[in-house]
Amino acid sequence: MAQIIDPLPTTAEQYVLCCYVNATSKIQVVRISNIPNWYFERVVFPGQRLVFEALPQAQLEVHCGMMASAILADTILCDRLRIESELEADFGLEAAPNQHPAEPLAAVEAR
Questions:
Q1: Taking the CB of residue 47, how many other CB atoms lie within 10 A of it?
Q2: Where do the DSSP E strands lie in the chain?
Q3: Number of H helices, E strands in the chain
Q4: Among the four residues 20, 46, 69, 106, which has the most C-beta atoms within 10 Å?
Q5: What is the pLDDT of residue 19?
């Protein structure tokens, strides 16, 4: 998965594919701020599913609120939002924990 905007730090050797769903009726802003030299922030609309790549130790902050204010509603460890293991089980793929984010999936499947 290419993450063109705000790519993972080039020193990242391991990453996880994550999925977050805004199950509320309010717009949320999610961000990861505990990874040095990396900025990740997205607006997630009600019912929207956000799929992204992150380091396993990254923490997704979920902010919600009204106009001109935001309240930190939750902090979720990205490893808990991981969807790779489900995909690997569904498609019989082997885990590739050291795959660099820029490496295409076809290269992993060819191993």
A1: 10
A2: 16-21, 28-32, 40-44, 49-54, 59-64, 71-77
A3: 2, 6
A4: 20
A5: 95
